[in-house]
Give the backbone structure.
Amino acid sequence: MNALKNEKILFAGLTGQIGFPLALRLAKDNEVWGIARFRDEGKKKQLENVGVKTCPMDLGRPEYATLPGDFSYLIHFAVYQEGGLDFDEALRVNAEGTGLLMAHCRKAKAALVMSSCAVYALPEDPGHPLKESDPLHGPQSAHCPTYAVSKTAEEAAARASARQVGLPTTIARMNVYYGEYGGLPPWQFEWMLAGMPVPVQPGRASVCSPIYEEDIYNHVGGLLAGASVPATIVNWGGDEAVDVRTYCAYMAEITGQKIQFQEAADDPLAARTVVVDNTRRRELAGDCMIKWRDGMRRMLAARHPEIKLKG
């Protein structure tokens, strides 16, 4: 693991479900500045309590005049993912905001920009591991119609900015994240607890490459070390492929919960998942350390200590 220590890091989007636990960990050994809208005052206080310097800001309308420009690294996880059809706002935040942020951090040693596997076209074979060179044409999601197109635009903006300002950059396409603070599997477990069916795509396996929060932390240093101009493009998922139905059944088994699935193509909660080829990520940042069953068990134990897990 290539751990970051004694660095001055600007972290955009550190209140999100992926960024929050990562920022808490990074703040132990680094000087972390965080920009976000900070709509959750509790999270803001938690970050400040571990030493993070919080700077409220809208990435679509940034004001960088009062923000230092001497950061050694930029970590950019901020994202516009509202519902509705406001493509202009989605592009302003995800694409324009990324370019302006990278321009401000042009003196940094490297930038890590988190994209999404939503940019990929869905392969005919749901178990086919997608390479970074595979076709892009993310399908429009009922949950957030602007997401795939604006994340693709974000990648283009990051690639152009890396070359224009000479900032070594890694663009990492996140797969299915999960951990104590959120992700798709925790949401699905909450639906089980509420007696609701877990929605899945009809007539298609929902295979993915789930990655646990600890592995994300372990990979950050290596992904930044692998940054380049032109930008490095890399998949960021777990090393095991697993179907949504399989890991949901496992969560139900070890918690004693009942589970049912509902096939619904137009359900905004029916995730469209893909499997990724992690060869490039493993070269840059190493293997994942947490197997998916162990990760699911640790996640459930942290989020639901009142449930005695079986096995």
